Structure formats: structure tokens, C-alpha cells
Task: structure prediction
Amino acid sequence: MMDVATALGTYLDIVDSVAPGLVEGLYVVGSYALGDWTEGTSDIDIVAVTAEPATDDDFGSLRTVHALLAEQPLPFIDGPYLAWGDLLIEPATGLHRPWVLDGRLRHDGECFEINPITWYTLATYGVTVRGPGVESLGIPIDIEARIRFVVDNLQGYWRGVADGVAAACARAEPPAFSAADLVWCALGPLRLHYTAFTGDVTSKRGAGEHGLTAAPAAFHEVLREALAARATGELGPATTEQMRVTAALTEWCIAEVAAAR
Result:
């Protein structure tokens, strides 16, 4: 595996050779910016910036870039391709820009990472690889927009996840769950709980540590198990009971945030 600096150097070499001058700014967000990147398990979350919104020709070039990247022994390099002017918009949702998830390039308005949390992470913790320093970009970071986004995400996406996991666990023959399922479901909603109560953002590890101080003791064992799985990259199975507890933990997060609002 490559470290982040080497991986991004490879990425820039490829994008500059395929589309010279297209990527004017490159910033790292996500787990690396938050001090929680783990080689072999973490993706590299970026915000790439172009002069103007990407054209169809630009998208064609980016398809070539990401096809070439897929041939390299790299972690996934994921995130949106934004124009400089996009970074001045809030709330930043629904933009039709190229974006990448798990190495797959898309061009539609479904990019979850175009949101106030990403804007705040970029403005506050972003690591500059190419372009002006993040502190000079004038990115809006309204706390109310950030918290509204968190509340909506808990009430929408995460409530659906909790209901789905609880229903699956109640089946006569529950499905097989993985350690990745455990990490995602135990730590994901706690990241939003943390933001709702502090206005700041945190990593998955930070969310688990937050849960060990903020959540009831009944959830602590599963949080320790999720933190251990994330730290080691353990890909073994998760138990039905562990996943049942994550569903209850998500419901606790939703109720706590709703009560505070």
C-alpha cells in the first residue's frame, strides 16, 4: 500500500498528463484531515477544484484518469470535482458535478459529500495539496446549516438504517453481518450526534470515544468492539446481537438530538 502523499502524487501525475491544467486545487478532507487515517483500510477523501464547472469533455478526461488510477495499487481517492465558485455556496447540496465513491466516477446531483459538513471540514481541517491555502478560500461555514444537515441526515438516512438493521436482526434467519457493518452502524450516527452538540466534526475513532463518554453504558461494549475493528482492519463477521445494539444506539442518537432541538 502507498501512503497518502505518494498516492496523491500518483493521482496528480495522472490527472496532469491526461488533462493538463484541469485540477487547479486539491485538498484532503475526511479521516486523514481529522487524524484518523489507517493505511490499508481508509480511503483518501479529497475535494478537487477546477476553474469552472466540469464540462462533458472534462468528464470524459476524468473517466480516463480514474480508469488509469484503478490500475494502480492505491487506496480509493474519493470526492467531488468542484469549481472555485461552488465553494462560496451554502447550503452546498444538489450540485451536478463529477464525483467519485469507492473509485467509481459519476456525474449527477447525488454526491453526498457536497454538503455543509464537508465545507466545514475543508475550511477548518482541510490539508492543502495544490492551490491556495484553505484559510484564503472564504468557504461559508454557518453552524445552523451544518446542524440542520446533521438533524435531517439522522432523521432520514440513519433512521432508515436503524429500522432496516433491527428488522434484519429480528428475522428467524438473520443475514450475515461484517465488521465493516458494525463499524459503520456503531460509529456513523455518533459522528452526527457529536456535531449536533458541539458544532464541530470528528472522525469515526473520535465518534466512538465520544460515545464512550456521552452514551449510556449499555452501548459501551459494542463501541469498544467497533473501535477495535476499525483500528485493526478486522474483516471478520459481526454478530446479530452486536448489530441489534447498533440499531438501538442509532435510535438513541436520533432521540437525543431531536430532544435538544
